[in-house]
Amino acid sequence: MKDLNKLIEEAQQSELKAVTRRHFLKDCVAGIGGIALGGLLASCGGWDSSKSKGSLDLNALNPLIPKSPHFPGKAKSVIYLHMAGAPSQLELFDYKPALQKLHNQPCPQSLLAGKKFAFIRGVPKMLGPQATFKQYGQSGAWVSDHLPHFSKVVDDVSFLKAVHTDQFNHGPAQLFMHTGSARLGRPSIGSWVTYGLGSENSNLPGFVVLTSGGKTPDAGKSVWGSGFLPSVYQGVQCRSKGDPVLYIADPEGMDRDMKRNLIDAINNVNKTEYDTFKDPETLSRIAQYEMAYKMQVAVPEVMNINNEPAYIHELYGTEPGKESFANNCLLARKLVEQGVRFVQLFDWGWDSHGTNASDSIDLGFRNKCREIDRPMTALILDLKQRGLLEDTLVVWGGEFGRTPMQENRDNSDMPFLGRDHHTDAYTIWMAGGGVRNGISYGQTDDIGFAGVEGRASVHDVHATMLHLLGFDHEKFTYEFQGRPFRLTDVEGELIQAII
Fold first, then answer.
1. Which ranges does the record mark as transmembrane (predicted)?
2. At a CB cut-off of 8 Å and minimum separation 6, what does 223 contact?
3. What is the CATH class of 77-243+291-485?
4. Quick one: average pLDDT of 291-299?
5. Taking the model in full, what pTM does it have?
């Protein structure tokens, strides 16, 4: 009874707050202008009388309904594989025999002058490739012996060999790679895509995030945040071990009908709140309650990999019940198969500085490659055999590259071989979703220090991804703080060679 009285008292105070003199004056200031503007709009034929009472737009209550892009896109969904920490392109895809000849020689001053590095100080030594390379497929793509499985699918892939960024620390670089800005507050690319296209499955989130490697990215959950877009478009993090979403099951004693009645009651309160204050986040809250209710049925089934046939588990190298990159690759296929628009995989542990054996470029790096080689290859093969690769864009990469010189700190060698962060050149590959097969676009210099042709910025990568999904990146905007914002800011060119 005491709790009930407290709730009644809070409701009365909330109602009184809405009619205090301060709130009355505030509403009048906005209201008088609104009345005048409404009159002008009505006289110009721009006001829909059917909505004059401020009733809820049904489409606003279902913000993830499928939408049409600017033009028919080749890709309908995206699987983005981000290797958090930045893998070395010089041990994977960018073969530089000239660098091997310079191994252990002092780094030329011309490479150091005017450059900023995260950790290198003084004069480091050059570091030759710590892998063996061969050419594979009809395309003749160079791939190292770290990726024996992936070498078999290079003809289904387009490589961007000269991607560059302007951020050399992990957090800002990851933000830049996923939001188009090194500062907090911008929407992630997954949020932009679900905002623009909605989702084809009303029982699952449009944007799902899966992590592996034991940690989340350095930039935190902002790399899948919705920024200034409505929060319904932010990524929903699921787990590949245990319950896919915490509290996915109802507590003991609550059945499905009781849950439905509870959510209906909460949504009725939220609808009243929206009619009063017109806060768009209230609509997001309603949509998220509805989604959570639907997810309780849909998520456990789609996130269960135990019922996959044995040959699929063998193909991916999955281990049901464990958190792993392999499990997440299989889950990504299942999610896009069920109509999820954007699936983001983050695999942590690619920061190869050489401070210890696990992050060395010749030991720990090789082990990380073993963890991803089979699963990411299986993902391409599995999507292809199911006819899904044609309209699923698969993207792989890190936030920047690694230096062709060995890392030193305080002008002294590290205990193990390692490479520092590098902004001037790194490799990203794409497959499916309208991407040309067997292309290697861009080229770095003889030691892999900088791009010399076909350079591509982060904004160029984003512009190309949006184009493949059917969007003109210059026209795909959202009004915020008085101006239209876009993922590519005021830059970005299409990488036509891979489209």
1. none
2. 174, 175, 177, 178, 179, 188, 217, 346
3. alpha beta
4. 60
5. 0.84
